[in-house]
Amino acid sequence: MQSYYVDEKLSDGVLLEATFPPPGLGYSAGSLPGWGRDKSLFALYPHMASCGSIIGDAGVGRVSPLGRHGVFIRYNLTRGDAAKVLEGIAMAAEIYFAAGAAEVYPMLPGLGSIRSAAEVRSVREGRWRPSDLHLSAYHPMGSARMGADPSSSVVDPFGHVWDVPDLFVFDASVLPSSCHVNPQITIMALVARMAARLADSLS
User: Fold this and answer.
1) Chain segment 165-191, per-residue pLDDT in tens
2) Catalytic residue (one of 47, 139, 160, 180)
3) Pick from 90, 76, 57, 72: which is nearest to 175 by CA?
4) Can 139 be counted among the known catalytic residues?
């Protein structure tokens, strides 16, 4: 599923990653043009490829109580983050056309497909709003960021919640910000370090 990546613009916050799960699991199939029985493009699915435009976002969110048993989750994608996603879409389209693609489906409203590298400018020059983008999120992190200052972090460098005695957070939420890649190894290393410190304090 993840065979190639492009990090040419990683310093600008954009990473491309080839990923193409089966139709029932992925977001790509549901974003193809057409509706209901008009999903004739599914017949071409074995001949398609997909690429994710992955960004390190600067947007912020909030989780708030909603009634007695629910939560309200709000996230604001910044226009700068939206511009990164669009640049990733444009780059992926250029790569696919260079590889011989007949059509590219950018998953943008009103732009069903583009048929040449020259048409990629419609992605970059369009007046797209953040809400126009078809997004998905993986490996969420940063909701309980760690730091040395209680005024700007939730936990200390060893996962202890600043203002709640004996409460610790040992997972991806302690990362100070989001990164472009699956932080699995980083999480395991952090948790091992934090757990060792906690075990020492209890012995």
Assistant:
1) 999 999 999 998 877 778 899 999 999
2) 139
3) 57
4) yes
